[in-house]
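Quick one:
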Amino acid sequence: MNRRIVNCISTIRELNVEELNQSGCGVELQDFVEPNLSKEDVERLIDGYKNRLAQVKGIKSLHGPFLDLKPASPDKEIRRVSQIKYRRTLEIAHELDVQFVVFHSQINPYLNQTFLRDLNNKQAAAFWRALMDVTPYKGEVVIENVFEESPYMLRELVDEIDHDKVSINLDIGHSNLGYAPLREWIHVLGDRLTYMHIHGNSGFEDQHIVPSDEKLTSLLELLDKEGLDPVLALEYKISNIPEEVKRYRRKL
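Output:
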């Protein structure tokens, strides 16, 4: 299986179109996560990316803002600001013509009362359905696990949203900080899983380190077993993209 691979970059200075195309790799832009970007900052970034990004042959993705945001918050002011930022992000994604936009789930894993979880999921579902109906963006939104310790709340949320353009980004570094093994995450998320952030850690901190050959082999075997083909986004520092992509291709 010729899996799709993208390299996550923090700033426009890291975008090397020639290197990406030579290695058959796409890109995920992460500088739009900055919460205090002004309108002028955003316009400058869009202008800087637009022509160069159009030359990238692989998958193109964009990570949206996440700090202190919750579009399904019971606080109407928090909800209003969150919705503005989410909608603006999708407009940027449309202008840059990317295929995927990543947003954090904003799930509180300690919401263990069933009625509160149900209410949160219903409010989030109403938000996402309404937003996807009005946004010009035609690509896919992938919702990422952050603090969840197992896959069940994220699966419940995306099942409740039940939209053909909203699926899941499994961040395996974040999942490693919980208690459920990776095989359980992949099995439970199943057909909702279309995108993955790949990086490693010690199990205690979100370190974004290079995954070992052993971890990489195990991951790819799990995906093969479940018959899944998510985009693989490499979310760690890479000094030589072509060589790192070759490492994945050898495992495949």
